[in-house]
C-alpha cells in the first residue's frame, strides 16, 4: 500500500510499504480521510518537542485524525466490527498502570500516540492498524469527512469544557485555527459569548460567520472582562498575555504549544486566584464530540477547507495551500485520491 513518510525534516516520500496485518486484539481499517494537523506540521519541520526529548524520531508515518472502515479483525476481536465506520483515539495507553486504570490513559507513561509517539505508524496511508479497544464507532449518517473531524472536535470539546462556558460568560479564544474555531462552536453551543483574536483575515471572517461576538487581529477590551481565556496558538508570547487579561477568579485553558517554552509569572496566578488547565488530548472528549455533531449543535464542516489527494500532502506541509480550497483551516487527505 501507499504511505506518506517524513524521512527527515522537510523531506518526504510517498512510499510503497507492506500492508498491515491484524494481530490479536487489533483491526485493520481502510482509510477514507485523514486530517493534516498543526502537530503534523511541527513534525514535518523537525521542531516538534517529542523529536528532541526521545519520544519520537524520524522517519515517521504521520496522521492521527482519521476516518475509515474496518476491513480486517484479528483474533479475539468481535467480527461484527467488519464494515463499520470508525475512527480511533490517538492516545493508546498500556491498560495496566494506575493512570490507565483511573481514566487517564492519555497520560500513560508507556502510551503510543497514533502517528506521533513511540513509533506507532499513523493514518497517512491507505490502511491503518490499531488495537480494537481504541476504536470509536461513527454514526452511519456521518460522511467520512465529518468522521475525520471528530478527533479535532474532541480536543476542542475538552478545551471548551475546561473554560466552563455558560450564558453570561465572556470567553476569549486566541487563535483562529482549527482548534480555536471548533472551541468557539462548542462555547457558543454552551451559551457563552465568544471573542476571538487571530492573525489570518480569512479565518477571522470565518469566526464571525460561525457566530462569535467579536473577532479581529487586536485584543478587544470588553466591559467586565473575560471570565475564561484560551490559548489555541503556536505563539509562546500568548500565555503571559492571557494571565494579564483574565478576570480574577477566572480560568486559563492552554492547548497551543510553541517549540519554545512560554514563560508566565506564577505570582499573578496567585494574586488573581486563577485556575490554569492544560489540555493534551481529546481522549476523554470523543463521546461528547460525536454527540454534539450528531445532535446538530455544532457544524464542524464550517472549518473544513477541503479534501486533496496524497500527492498534495508534501506541498501542504511546505506551506503551499492547494488552489481551489475554501477558507476553512482544516485540510483532509483522501489517500486513494
Ligand atoms: Zn491533530
Ligand atoms: Zn498505562
Summarize it.
With 337 residues, this protein is an alpha/beta fold. The chain has helices at residues 38-45, 50-53, 98-101, 144-148, 150-163, 178-189, 201-210, 238-245, 266-272, 286-294, 313-317; strands at residues 2-8, 11-16, 26-36, 60-61, 66-73, 85-88, 91-92, 112-113, 127-131, 135-137, 170-174, 193-197, 214-216, 226-231, 246-254, 275-278, 304-309, 330-334. It is globular.
Secondary-structure blueprint:
Layout: E1 2-8, E2 11-16, E3 26-36, H1 38-45, H2 50-53, E4 60-61, E5 66-73, E6 85-88, E7 91-92, H3 98-101, E8 112-113, E9 127-131, E10 135-137, H4 144-148, H5 150-163, E11 170-174, H6 178-189, E12 193-197, H7 201-210, E13 214-216, E14 226-231, H8 238-245, E15 246-254, H9 266-272, E16 275-278, H10 286-294, E17 304-309, H11 313-317, E18 330-334
Parallel strand pairs: 11-12, 11-14, 12-13, 14-15, 15-16, 17-18
Antiparallel strand pairs: 1-2, 1-4, 3-5, 3-9, 3-18, 5-6, 6-10, 7-8
Features:
337 residues, alpha/beta, Quinone Oxidoreductase, Chain A, domain 1, Rossmann fold, 2 domains, 7-stranded mixed β-sheet, 6-stranded parallel β-sheet, 11 helices, 18 strands, 26% helix, binds zinc ion
Amino acid at each position: 500500500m501507499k504511505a506518506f513518510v517524513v524521512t527527515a525534516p522537510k523531506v518526504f516520500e510517498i512510499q510503497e510499504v507492506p500492508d498491515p496485518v491484524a494481530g490479536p486484539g487489533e483491526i485493520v481499517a481502510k482509510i477514507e480521510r485523514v486530517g493534516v494537523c498543526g502537530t503534523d506540521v511541527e513534525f514535518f519541520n523537525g521542531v516538534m518537542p517529542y523529536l528532541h526529548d526521545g519520544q519520537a524520531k524520524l522517519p515517521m508515518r504521520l496522521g492521527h485524525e482519521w476516518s475509515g472502515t474496518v476491513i480486517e479483525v484479528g483474533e479475539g476481536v468481535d467480527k461484527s466490527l467488519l464494515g463499520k465506520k470508525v475512527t480511533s483515539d490517538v492516545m493508546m495507553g498500556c491498560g495496566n498502570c494506575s493512570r490507565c486504570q483511573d481514566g487517564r490513559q492519555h497520560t500513560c507513561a508507556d502510551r503510543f500516540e497514533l502517528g506521533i509517539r513511540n513509533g506507532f505508524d499513523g493514518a497517512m496511508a491507505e490502511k491503518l492498524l490499531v488495537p480494537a479497544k481504541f476504536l470509536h464507532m461513527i454514526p452511519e449518517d456521518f460522511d467520512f469527512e465529518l468522521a475525520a473531524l471528530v478527533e479535532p472536535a474532541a480536543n476542542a470539546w475538552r478545551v471548551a469544557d475546561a473554560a466552563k462556558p455558560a450564558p453570561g460568560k465572556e470567553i476569549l479564544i486566541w487563535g483562529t485555527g482549527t482548534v480555536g474555531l471548533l472551541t468557539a462552536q462548542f462555547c457558543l453551543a454552551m451559551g457563552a459569548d465568544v471573542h476571538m483574536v487571530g492573525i489570518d483575515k480569512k479565518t477571522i471572517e470565518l469566526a464571525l460567520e460561525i457566530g462569535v461576538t467579536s473577532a479581529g487581529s487586536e485584543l478587544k477590551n470588553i466591559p467586565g472582562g473575560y471570565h475564561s481565556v484560551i490559548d489555541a496558538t503556536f505563539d509562546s508570547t500568548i500565555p503571559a498575555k492571557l494571565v494579564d487579561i483574565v478576570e480574577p477568579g477566572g480560568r486559563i485553558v492552554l492547548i497551543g504549544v510553541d517549540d519554545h517554552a512560554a514563560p508566565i509569572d506564577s505570582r499573578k496566578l496567585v494574586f488573581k486566584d486563577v485556575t490554569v488547565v492544560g489540555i493534551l488530548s481529546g481522549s476523554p472528549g470523543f463521546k461528547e464530540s460525536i454527540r454534539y455533531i450528531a445532535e446538530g449543535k455544532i457544524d464542524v464542516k464550517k472549518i473544513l477547507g477541503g479534501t486533496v489527494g496524497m500527492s498534495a500532502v508534501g506541498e501542504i506541509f511546505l506551506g503551499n495551500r492547494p488552489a481551489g480550497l475554501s477558507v476553512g483551516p482544516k485540510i483532509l487527505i483522501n489517500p486513494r485520491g
